[in-house]
Amino acid sequence: MFLTRLVYASKKSPKFCSSDIDDILETARKHNGSLGITGLLCFNRQYFLQALEGPRSAINSTYYRITQDKRHSDMLILSYEEIRERNYGSWNMGYVPESSLTAPQTLKYSIGSEFDPFSMSSKSACMLLNDLSKTVPII
């Protein structure tokens, strides 16, 4: 069994409501542990950036389920690779909401401090997630 990391970006759909982020996190945290999945989710009320780590088959089926979720639109895989170790092993699903603490890291990896993973290279988006996991409080 191989460890795999998938990083994707998506936009919130018109069907998304403000309480949906809590539901997304609760569902992910409930299911990911039993599947051996860990990860990190960033969200700024418009864009999602998420890393999923774990067994390849579990990552693939989880990502497929996310693509069917009507709260997401314009999904884009930024990175999919076999890994030797997890970056986000402390969380079944860690969460980083946009805040004044995230703006400096966002600026470090993109053209501005406004969080928009679609305007970042895949490498920069992955580096942003890794940097955030080490520098800001994870919910």
Automatic annotation (TrEMBL):
- What is the official name of this protein in its record? BLUF domain-containing protein
User: A Pfam family for this UniProt protein?
Assistant: BLUF
Determine the domain of life of the protein's source.
Answer: Bacteria
Question: Domain BLUF: where?
Answer: 3-94
Molecular functions per Gene Ontology: blue light photoreceptor activity; FAD binding
